[in-house]
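anyone seen this seq b4? input:
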Amino acid sequence: ASTTSDSSNITATSPVPSSALTWDANITFTNFTRTQENKDLDAADLVKQVIAFSAFKSRILNHTYKGKKTFVDNLGLSNAKIYKKILESSEKLNSGKNYTMDITLATYQTDANVIGYTLPNVNKVWMNTRYLNKFTPVQVSSNLVHEWLHKLGFGHDYESTPSRPYSVPYAVGSIIKSLAAKY
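predicted toks r here
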């Protein structure tokens, strides 16, 4: 393993690893209109910019929950190891560190207040067109990363609990959204 992906070398003051600068997204679409595809591609471009940004590394490394540098539902990983896991991008069903978000997106429509969902035994992520069609690329980038983080093995409480916003999918999605809004 190269030192750029070694979490022991990832600190708030270390340079952004080269793997963050070349990190990529590989998206496959099912049942998307051209407009929806373009919005998701724009969102993925925002995610790539944010991942390469030193502020993203800093926000992940310095994320706190109840005064401690940690995430909720973190698989027992330190913040630096979560950052490394995001960069390595080894999805549970498509394992191998390729430094690329590999994701298959499908659309569906429901009136439920669910932006999107995925299941642990499939590579696919479903995006609710009720939200997708009205969301900006910045909002889509947050949901895209949230759902993709499930593919890396991170979960969160099913119900809306006080700790859920601090889970890896919700917190990192929120970090992506706030930094993507700067572009």
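The first strand starts at residue 24 and ends at 30. The CA atoms of residues 91 and 152 lie 5 Å apart. kinda curious what u guys think
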